From TrEMBL:
Residues covered by the Metallo-beta-lactamase domain: 37-229
Protein name in UniProt: Phosphoribosyl 1,2-cyclic phosphate phosphodiesterase
Pfam families attached to this UniProt entry: Lactamase_B_2
Protein role: Counteracts the endogenous Pycsar antiviral defense system. Phosphodiesterase that enables metal-dependent hydrolysis of host cyclic nucleotide Pycsar defense signals such as cCMP and cUMP.
């Protein structure tokens, strides 16, 4: 079965935030409904294909334990911010102990940044560029740069297989027409929305809020949408009266990709 698993659905700080006693963080500590590790997903594909992950944040080790898995040999990275690559040293150590070479896929400029931050990683993995279309796990994968607001840029991924198309766009805001173009015609979209309605000055922001995201979705019209990358502003117990077809992704949620 082609399946997507949300390993984490939190923003850069995760939920609960260690210093915070708000209702959402308190609930996350007590019962865990709002517990959110840093955003990452796992893709299982039909056939002989090995699973692969999108992003490898600082919660990688515990995310693997949550799934009862000891290793994923292939990663697809959206950008080189810590909440998306902070688990790479642990992943590299797993490669070393298991005697395997990891496969890290990312756009060329993202690879260059990772190599500058962790120059020793190349001993334990192969770096593979995604600037041209690639095939991964039976999926045709396209990458493109998207606006990450105050935080610069990220990359989004569009994946197609056997007539089913979905995209992962965890860190974006204020997308221009050319950046939105690959997000049309989707069966499923995973979209980052850090707040329900963020009040900070727009120039300081880096990810869509849910109000803006719904306006975007009215244009894109994907079949299904899952919001991820959510901060402690979001309480998944609440009814936010979101448009039809939108789901707040919970950590551990599994979604079928295709028939």
């Amino acid at each position: 079965m082609n399946q997507l698993t949300f390993l984490g659905t939190g923003d850069a700080m995760g939920v609960p935030r260690v210093y915070c006693d708000c209702d959402v963080c308190t609930e996350a500590r007590l019962t865990g409904i709002n517990l959110r590790k840093r955003a990452a997903v796992l893709i299982h594909s039909d056939g002989e294909h090995e699973p692969f992950m999108i992003d490898c944040g600082p919660d990688w080790r515990s995310q693997m334990e949550d799934q009862g898995m000891r290793m994923v040999q292939t990663l697809l990275i959206t950008h080189a911010h810590f909440d998306h690559i902070g688990g790479l040293p642990e992943w590299a150590d797993a490669c070393r102990w298991l005697g395997v070479k990891g496969h890290l896929y990312a756009p060329r400029e993202v690879i260059a940044t990772i190599q500058s931050q962790f120059p020793w990683l190349g001993r334990h993995m192969n770096f593979l560029e995604t600037d041209a279309d690639i095939e991964l796990g039976g999926w045709k994968v396209r990458s493109w740069k998207v606006c990450h607001g105050h935080n610069g840029y990220s990359y989004a991924y569009r994946l197609e297989r056997e007539g089913y198309t979905w995209a992962y766009c965890s860190d974006a805001i204020d997308l221009k027409a050319s950046e939105k173009q690959p997000l049309y015609g989707l069966d499923l979209l995973v979209l980052g929305t850090s707040f329900v309605h963020e009040l900070a000055e727009f120039s300081t922001r880096s990810v869509y809020d849910m109000v803006e995201a719904q306006e975007l979705l009215q244009d894109l019209k994907p079949g299904q949408t899952y919001f991820t990358h959510m901060s402690h502003d979001v309480d998944v117990r609440q009814n936010y009266d979101l448009d039809q077809g939108i789901t707040l992704a919970l950590t551990g949620l599994k979604v079928k990709l295709g028939e």
